[in-house]
Amino acid sequence: MTHIVNSRIIRVLPLMALLTLLFALPIAAQEVIRVTGKIVSKEQKMPLYGVNITDVPTGRKMATSDEDGRFAIDVRSNTTLRFSMIGAKTTVVKVKNQNYLEVELAEEEMFLNEVVVASKRITDKVMPEPTDIEIKGNYAYIRTRVRVPREMFSHDTRLVMQPVINNATQKQLTLMRPLVYDAHEYNRTQDRLYNFRMEDKAPSGDPLAQYVTIKTDTTREEGRKNDIIGYSDSIYLDNVRDEFTCDIYMAIENYRRILYRDTTIIARGTVNPLRWLEYSFGSAEMNDTAYFPKPETQLRDSHGEVNLRFPVGKAAFDLNDAANVAEVEKLRRQIEEISSNKDATLQALTMHGTSSPEGKYTSNLTLAQRRMNFAVDYLKKQVPEEMRRGMKFKANAEVASWADVTRLMRADSLNDEAAQVEAIAKRYASRDLQSRAMRSLPFYKSTILPKYLPQLRRVDYVMNYSVFRQLTNDEIRALYQKDYRQLSRFEFFKLYRSEKDPAQRETILRQALEMYPSFMTAANDLEALLINRQAADPEVLKPFAGQKAPEVVNINQMIALLNTGHYTEADSIAAFVPENDNTRMLLAVTAVLNGQFDDNFNIVAKTSRRNELVLLLAMKRNKEALELSKQLPDDEALSHYLRATCLNRMEQPLEAYEELKKAFKMDPSLKRTAELDGDVNDLLLDKQHNK
To answer: pTM for the whole thing?
Structure first.
């Protein structure tokens, strides 16, 4: 079954259609409506990219759907639209004055057994040779040759082939580099007719220009009439342990239409014997004391607000006012609490006052600043003299705006009144004129003056202090239970290193990284814990691993990458890990998983007979592999599976299938693996063996 590619797809429609779109004249405005919509696959309901939308009455191509399957076009209100793409059944929709269309395209079997070229009926096909998907590191390699019948490819045609990797495990499709094969006349004529250079990219040139090969006699093998085109490309795989197949979508076009289209499977599975390689590496916590956190002085801030009441026009607040006394006492207690901590040192006290906007702006600002200066001088006296000496005392002030008034009014749903305040504020640039005009509002004295202006008169404070402490484990645990965010790096370190429960230890480590994202020791120790419980996460150490990282960090990151199937990335980290007795096997396994066998075969092969066999298969030393497979234990399903692989490679399919049946009987789950294993799945397709 042909798959509909629901990701970014290379268009293969004739370029004439594209240029028709670019240079099309608009239709009369009074007969045109704007139509938007979305195109999805009928089966999966996924957005379809690259669907061609054509106005049926005019034959004009109007647009192509984007990556989200969406489009927007201007068309006649009574027109009919055709939606088409390779791999899908063409759908025709009548607009009927609709401004939005939701279109579903069904998958289509696209096999064209006969086409007409120059009035000659032929029954041949473009035939890519079957191949295997070979895995090295995290790259899948596709190599094939394509036979193009001479009678199908005239002087004014183009062949486009789009290989698609199908991740059968995740049910995802990924496009590889397309192959574009131009007849010489087609390529030359494009330049002449359309006045653009073929090598230029879209939109000024051919969108497929970078992929074009121009037909020459060199593409024809000696003694053959057909053209033979070679194709080789690779693609990065996020998860190399998934199973993959490969299809090729093909189309031959001239300037006006598609003459031929087809889809063929070139790889029914993945050839990846290294999937069976056995390895296991233990992780390690940070043991270099140079990277252990040290007790440190911590800078803290204490924020608050005091509601001090000042007499109108006065800079000093009434010290006999009970409300003022209570507010000052609240602040004094906080100062006392900090000063009573033998490990704490007050650094600074900053007070910030805000006055309401009525009256003259300069007078308000001056008064607000004087009030803050008075408040700071008064509160300064509340700080013990021995603590006061090293402290900084600051005061600043500002005048609130009328926009602050409207914000408060809108919060109370007084939208009409707020709009009148806004209108005055916009009318006058001067704050003084704004204040004067506000007094004329009918609700100024009844609402603004008594309710909202007092809310803008506030005094905020910030106390800066430092704390140096070295708590016992019990004290750290008590502080952690109260609020883990108060712990220092050193305290987190002591806490999680003393925690015996792995789950709780992981929780503490994640909280430590939440508070201190650059805490490398905690990140390393978390990754070590995750590796040990088979839940490696390479993202944990990703910010730290590399040239400047300690050896243990790079080792743990390599293990995490290997355990999650990111072999290529593990190989990049290997460059920063020195070879020694502790790392030799890790480096060798990483190397062979990335196809580097020469200097590492002996190191890995000696770990087990199975590993040696797997390496031989990966190196295509099939005869040696077959002999070694006879030594594998017969009571293990994988022994029979690997033996079947060896026999099949040595063209002994009957014997191979018998071994495969033994493997399935002992472990039925291997049948699913075999269906997408390029080394053995042909045995399952053989009807003779499936009787």
So the answer is: 0.58
